[in-house]
Amino acid sequence: MNTPAKANAFFFFKLPAAWWCGVRVQSLSATQCNTRVRLRWINQNPFKSMFWAVQGMAAEIATGILLLSKTRAQNLNVSSLVVANEAVFHKKAVGKITFVCSEGPEIDKLVDALQSEQTPQTIWLKAQGKDEANKLVAEFKFKWSLKRRTHG
Known about the structure:
This protein has helices spanning 4-14, 16-21, 52-73, 104-116, and strands at residues 24-28, 33-38, 78-89, 96-101, 121-130, 136-148. By secondary structure, the chain is of the alpha+beta class. The protein has a single domain (4-148), classed as Hotdog Thioesterase (Thiol Ester Dehydrase, Chain A). Strands 1-2-4-5-6-3 form a six-stranded antiparallel beta sheet. α3 crosses α4. The two termini are 26 Å apart. The mean pLDDT is 93.
């Protein structure tokens, strides 16, 4: 999943709810991952804005793809799981919302620890969602737990 196209294909088969709601990986680099989702009929709430869970999917994917791309780049066989999350909503989500996780350097430290230690590691990763006017809509934090899989 080192390109947006590969990540989006992965979601089609492994996370179809995110795919059908319109969540897409927009860009991926060593330092950040951007996802986007546009308000549509299928992902709206009764208040004519984006359902909070759809925003959460886009935010989690921004953190998760960055994390998975870095563990896979180092050929680490890990199991990963979100064990906690927090969210703050600043305004209604309408139009196109872009979520950005810019925590690549922090993930690099985690990957180093995973390579040198056999104990599970946790990390809090943040994704901020902004609208087309670059106004902050929502902030999500996810606590990821990663553990190296043992062979044998």
